[in-house]
């Protein structure tokens, strides 16, 4: 049996992890496991930017993959960045094993709005599928409804759906075949 | 599928190059990274790029100097200056030196994505514009008429020889063989190419109207002639007049036409003055004109005037080796017209198209492909997408024998595509287990088409 592993880092509420696990199980032909949580990734903290460097977190996440792991998705609750961008919702190794998403900018409170647990869960699901899509080799899609559409802002995340468009679906199904062969 | 746009990243900091490189790959581009200005210049000299993202502050050659040198090599290549040191002066200087834009790192993802997409879509528009212009020029040049068949090759050779003369040409051939296309090819290959090509169908108009259409009329020439109107001869002045279905012309008009050809001048209906015209005549018919001359329904002197050079177009059934090429050309044409992205025609369907006898010739083939492009639910046109009368033609003639492996490979590919490469669903439809399907995918080297 092969698995997509979910790796919480820091304190992530179980309801988020449960709903994420259920959704991923519907979309990906693998078992879904939630691993024992790790501590918050302070090693990736940048004091100048006051943010966490997501590429460093990815390098750590990949060490926690087992031989049964197809992909491993880290879930954090800190503000992520990559050097060229002010922020990122998540990052993935294109055609690689590890991905990470953060709840930090997915919370409505970040934008001065009332907390909304359901909306947060939806956003977590979309961003997780998006990053895992990169792990399976998908690039950004021009279809604004497709989960692989690049979210420039949280409003784009809300506008897109939590599933692949027909074309991305076709490609990822082929990638599952290749994965099986590997 | 279009190849991904190529983006050159010039930055002395490895972490910035890598970060930008990874993100651009995720965004579907093909990035290339270099660490200094000189390497960027060498790269632009030897390879082609759509955009350059160049850091401003670099040791040695800075971003502004690098950009200036890049623009000396390729002034159309957009350069975006990126920097952590945002000042109005550097922004103004870089824009003055020809930067397409200027962005401050770390960027807002929306900003950089928007700029790059804007550039790429502008370049695509320019490219499409160039292609369309070339297409317009090329579309009627005879070298682009599909025909590898030896009879068509002989015709092309003949056209090449006569295109630049002013000799009249008579094109003979069944309906739908492409007579007007050949006429246009002659015109657009001749020194008259910049002048008008005017086409008149002699069977489409009643006799009285055909005369006024060809020669024009003056106000009051007949009831309804409320103003002067130039005829097609005048419109074609300096160019070519194509008289289609000339065999349908009545004797009185034939006489009138003969006079114009002899005297090179016309007289409008109801007019008194003569108008000099310089027009090359290309005529076409699907009738046996020689027999019409013998029977007396077509003037012999006009026949010889028109028939200085004869082009006899073969029916499609006599050039079956051109059928796959023509079908492919029409597929491309109707893909564009119908905004579809069909990838081809199945070997079975091609085999049947080649066997069919095409009474309506190339025009019929074009209609069949257009219909198939519109109605097909597949990515490749299948037998079932052809009209019933062609499918039933198969039953009487049979199709080329094929190896079992060929059929199996095609069927598995087709079923995978139908099921969007979902292996579980596909294996159920095919009635085999998943591992057998995996094996067959590997053995046949199948991948999404």
Task: Explain this structure.
The complex is a heterodimer of chains A (182) and B (449). By secondary structure, chain A is of the alpha/beta class. Chain A has one domain (3-181): 3-Layer(aba) Sandwich (Collagenase (Catalytic Domain)), CATH 3.40.390.10. In chain A, 35% of the residues lie in helices and 18% in strands. Chain A has five helices and eight strands, in the order E-H-E-E-E-H-E-E-E-E-H-H-H. Chain A has helices at 14-27, 54-61, 117-135, 154-159, 166-181, and strands at residues 3-8, 31-34, 45-46, 51-53, 69-76, 80-81, 90-92, 98-102. Chain A has a five-stranded mixed β-sheet with strand order 2-1-5-8-7, with helices on both faces. The longest helix of chain A is centred in the last third of the chain and has 19 residues, at 117-135. By secondary structure, chain B is α/β, with parallel strands linked by helices. Chain B has three domains: 6-135, 3-Layer(aba) Sandwich (Rossmann fold); 144-314, P-loop containing nucleotide triphosphate hydrolases (Rossmann fold), CATH 3.40.50; 318-444, Orthogonal Bundle (Helicase, Ruva Protein, domain 3). Chain B is 49% helix and 13% strand. Chain B has helices at residues 14-26, 37-46, 63-73, 88-96, 109-138, 150-162, 179-188, 207-215, 232-235, 251-263, 289-295, 300-306, 323-337, 347-355, 361-375, 388-397, 404-418, 423-430, 434-444, and strands at residues 6-10, 30-34, 51-55, 79-83, 101-104, 169-172, 197-201, 216-217, 229-230, 240-244, 265-266, 275-276, 280-285, 309-312, 344-345, 380-381. In chain B, the strands form five sheets. A five-stranded parallel β-sheet of chain B has the order 2-1-3-4-5, with helices on both faces. In chain B, helix 3 links the parallel strand 3 (51-55) and strand 4 (79-83). In chain B, helix 2 packs parallel to helix 3. Chain B is flat. Chain B starts with 5 loop residues before the first strand and ends in a 5-residue tail after the last helix. The mean pLDDT of chain B is 86. Chain A binds chain B through residues 29, 49, 55, 81-88, 92, 94, 134, 139-140, 150, 152-153, 166, 169-171, 173-174, 176-177, 180-181, and chain B through 13, 15-16, 18-20, 22-23, 25-28, 105-110, 112-114, 420-424, 438, 441-442, 447-448.
